[in-house]
From TrEMBL:
Keywords in alphabetical order: ATP-binding, Membrane, Nucleotide-binding, Transmembrane, Transmembrane helix
Signal peptide: none
PANTHER family recorded: ATP-BINDING CASSETTE SUB-FAMILY B MEMBER 10, MITOCHONDRIAL, ATP-DEPENDENT PERMEASE MDL1, MITOCHONDRIAL
SUPFAM superfamilies with a match to the protein in the record: ABC transporter transmembrane region, P-loop containing nucleoside triphosphate hydrolases
Protein name: ABC transporter ATP-binding protein
Pfam family, one: ABC_membrane
Domain ABC transmembrane type-1: 34-313
Domain ABC transporter: 319-559
Molecular function terms from GO: ATP binding
InterPro entries the UniProt entry points to: ABC1_TM_dom (IPR011527), ABC1_TM_sf (IPR036640), ABC_transporter-like_ATP-bd (IPR003439), ABC_transporter-like_CS (IPR017871), P-loop_NTPase (IPR027417), Type_1_exporter (IPR039421)
Length: 563
C-alpha cells in the first residue's frame, strides 16, 4: 500500500478513491489489459457481423456465388473469433474481479493488523464488516467492467465509422445519438452516487449496531435492555430501508433508460434506413446491415451505462476502503527507534508503581479489576506509559514490543477454521505441552476430529470456561519473553483452576510472567504479589504475608464485604 499514489491524508477523498482503483489496475495490469484486449476483439467480431451479412445478401441478390461463399466464410471466421475471444475475455474478467476483491481484503487486513488495538477506536465494527462483505464486491465489479466498457466503446466507434462510410446521414445519427444518450444517462449518475454513499454509510452503522446487539445479548437480557435496543435497531433498519428505496428509485430510472433510450435509437435508425432503401440510396443488404447494427448497438450502449453504474458503485466503496487505509494508529513507531537488543531489564509502569522483575512470576491484584487491566495494557503498550529498564516502550518499534510482550485477556476470540491452526498457526511443536498446562486436553479429546475439528464462529460451541482455557493454550504456544495474563482462570471451576495454577507456574518457571487475578489458588503459587488500590501499588510481598498485613488485600482476595 506504500506504492498507492495520492494516499496522503490531505488529498480529497474522490481523488484518493480513484487512485486506489488505478492502483488495483496497475498492480494486476497484465490480466486487466488482456481482458480489455479480448473484450475489444470480442466486440469487434460482433460489430463486423452485420456488415458481412449485408455483403453476403448483396452477393446473393447479384447472383455472385464466389462473393457469397467468401462472405460466408468471413462470417464463420467472425463467429469463431467471437466465441474464442468471448471465452478468453470472460476468463480474464473473472480473474480481475476476484483479484480486486482479494487484494482489497489483503490490504484491509494488513491495515487492520497495523492498527491493532487502535482499529476499534478508529473505525466502527459495522464499517469493517461492510468493507469485507459488500465493498469488495463493488470494487471487483468496477475493475471487471473496465474490459467490457472499453470493448463497447470501441465497438460503437467502429460501427459509427462503418455507417459513415455507407451513409453519411445514418452515420451522423449514430455519431450524434450515442453521446446524447450517454449525456442523458449521466444526469442520473450524480444523484445515484449521493444516494449510494448515504445508503452505504447507513449500512455500516446498522451492521455495527447488529454486532453490538449479538455480542451483548446475554447482558442485555439480564438487565432488561433487549427491548429498548431492539427498538432502536428497528428504527435504524427502517432508515436503511428508506435509503435503499431512494437509491433504488434512481437505479430503476437508470435501468429504464438502458432499455428505453437504445430502443428509441433502434426505431430511429431502422426508420431512416428503410426510407433510404426505398429511395435507392442504399441496397437491400445495406438496409439489413443498418437494422442489424441498430439492434446490435443496444448491447454496447447498455454495457456503457452499466459501466457508469458499476464504476460509480466501485468509487463509493473505494472511498470507504481508502478511509480505512488512511486511519492512523495512536501508537506510532518512533522516528528513531531504540535497538531491539536494548529491550531487557525491569518492565515498569510508573503511573501505578508496578515493577516486573525478569524471570519472576508476578501477580497483580487490584481492588478494582479494571485498574489491573489498564496496567496490563500499559505494560503491553496498548496504551503509553510503561518502560523497560527505564526506556519508554514508545521508543521501541511496536513490532519489537509485540514480539517480546504478549497480553492475553478475555476479549481475545477463537477463529473459524481447524482447531490446530487456531491454536498453533506456525506448527511450533509446543501445542501438546500447552494443552496440558491449560488443562485443555479433554476439550480436544471430546471433539470428533480432535485438533483437526472445525472451530465454529467465535468458538460459540465451547462454554466460557473452555474458551478461556483454549485462549490460554494459544498464549502459551506463542511462548513470549514476557507473558501477561488477565484473569486467565475466572471462568473455570476450582479443581481445574488449581491444576492450571500448578502447571502454569511449572511451565513458566524462570520466565517473566504477569498474572492479573484475585484468585487465591493462583496467588498462592506466584513468586510475588503486587496489590493496587486507587491505581497505585500499596503493598508488595507474597500471598500469605499480604493476607495478614494488608486488610484491603484480604477483602479483595477473600471477597469480604466492608464492615
Amino acid at each position: 500500500m506504500r506504492n498507492l499514489p495520492d494516499a496522503d491524508p490531505g488529498v480529497p477523498d474522490e481523488r484518493s478513491a480513484l487512485a486506489y482503483l488505478r492502483w488495483l489496475i496497475r498492480r494486476a495490469w497484465r490480466p486487466v489489459y488482456a481482458a480489455v484486449a479480448f473484450a475489444v476483439l470480442w466486440m469487434l467480431c460482433q460489430a463486423f457481423v452485420p456488415a458481412v451479412v449485408g455483403k453476403a445478401i448483396d452477393s446473393a441478390t447479384g447472383r455472385d456465388s464466389r462473393g457469397l461463399l467468401t462472405w460466408s466464410l468471413v462470417l464463420l471466421a467472425a463467429g469463431l473469433g467471437q466465441a474464442v475471444f468471448g471465452i478468453a475475455r470472460h476468463r480474464f474478467a473473472v480473474v480481475n474481479y476476484l483479484g480486486a476483491m482479494f487484494t482489497t481484503v489483503q490490504v484491509t487486513v494488513r491495515q487492520a493488523g497495523r492498527l491493532g488495538s487502535a482499529l476499534s477506536r478508529r473505525l466502527d465494527t459495522g464499517e469493517v464488516v461492510a468493507i469485507g462483505t459488500s465493498d469488495i464486491r463493488q470494487i471487483g465489479g468496477a475493475i471487471d467492467i473496465t474490459a467490457r466498457g472499453t470493448g463497447s466503446l470501441i465497438a460503437v466507434v467502429a460501427v459509427s465509422v462503418i455507417l459513415l462510410t455507407t451513409s453519411v446521414p445514418l452515420g451522423l445519427v449514430v455519431v450524434l445519438g450515442v453521446p446524447l444518450l450517454m449525456a442523458v444517462v449521466g444526469l442520473l449518475i450524480r444523484p445515484l452516487h449521493r444516494r449510494q454513499a448515504a445508503s452505504r454509510e447507513q449500512q455500516g452503522l446498522l451492521t455495527g449496531r447488529a454486532a453490538d446487539l449479538v455480542g451483548g445479548l446475554r447482558v442485555l437480557r439480564g438487565i432488561g435492555g433487549e427491548a429498548v435496543l431492539g427498538e432502536r435497531y428497528r428504527h435504524e433498519s427502517q432508515r436503511l430501508r428508506a435509503a435503499g428505496v431512494r437509491t433504488a428509485g434512481v437505479e430503476s430510472l437508470l435501468e429504464a433508460a438502458q432499455i428505453l433510450l437504445p430502443g428509441i435509437f433502434l426505431v430511429l435508425v431502422t426508420w431512416l434506413g428503410a426510407r433510404f432503401a426505398l429511395s435507392g440510396h442504399i441496397t437491400v443488404g445495406q438496409l439489413v446491415s443498418f437494422y442489424a447494427y441498430a439492434a446490435f448497438l443496444v448491447t454496447p450502449l447498455r454495457q456503457l451505462t452499466e459501466t457508469i453504474d458499476k464504476l460509480t458503485r466501485g468509487h463509493v466503496s473505494a472511498r470507504r476502503v481508502v478511509d480505512m487505509l488512511r486511519a492512523q494508529t495512536d501508537l506510532p513507531d518512533p522516528a528513531a527507534a531504540v535497538p531491539a537488543d536494548r529491550f531487557r531489564g525491569e518492565l515498569a509502569d510508573p503511573a501505578s508503581g508496578v515493577t516486573i522483575r525478569p524471570g519472576e512470576i508476578t501477580a497483580i491484584v487490584a481492588s478494582v479489576p479494571a485498574e489491573a487491566a489498564a496496567i496490563a495494557d500499559r505494560l503491553g503498550r496498548y496504551a503509553d506509559g510503561a518502560t523497560v529498564d527505564g526506556v519508554p516502550l514508545g521508543e521501541f518499534e511496536l513490532a519489537t514490543v509485540r514480539e517480546r510482550v504478549l497480553v492475553a485477556d478475555n476479549d481475545a476470540r477463537l477463529f473459524t477454521g481447524p482447531m490446530r491452526a487456531d491454536l498453533d498457526p506456525y506448527d511450533s511443536g509446543r501445542l501438546p505441552a500447552a494443552l496440558h498446562t491449560a488443562a485443555a486436553t479433554d476439550i480436544v479429546e471430546a471433539l470428533p476430529d480432535g485438533l483437526d475439528s472445525e472451530v465454529a464462529e467465535r468458538g460459540r460451541t465451547f462454554s466460557g470456561g473452555q474458551q478461556q482455557r483454549l485462549r490460554l493454550v494459544r498464549a502459551l504456544v506463542a511462548d513470549p519473553d514476557v507473558l501477561i495474563l488477565v484473569e486467565p482462570t475466572s471462568a473455570v471451576d476450582a479443581h481445574t483452576e488449581a491444576r492450571i495454577a500448578d502447571r502454569l507456574i511449572t511451565a513458566r518457571a524462570g520466565r517473566t510472567t504477569v498474572i492479573c487475578t484475585s484468585s487465591p489458588l493462583v496467588l498462592d503459587r506466584t513468586d510475588r504479589v503486587l496489590f493496587v488500590e486507587h491505581g497505585r501499588v500499596v503493598a508488595d510481598g507474597n500471598h500469605h504475608a499480604l493476607l495478614s498485613s494488608e486488610p484491603g488485600y484480604a477483602r479483595t482476595v477473600l471477597r469480604e464485604e466492608d464492615q
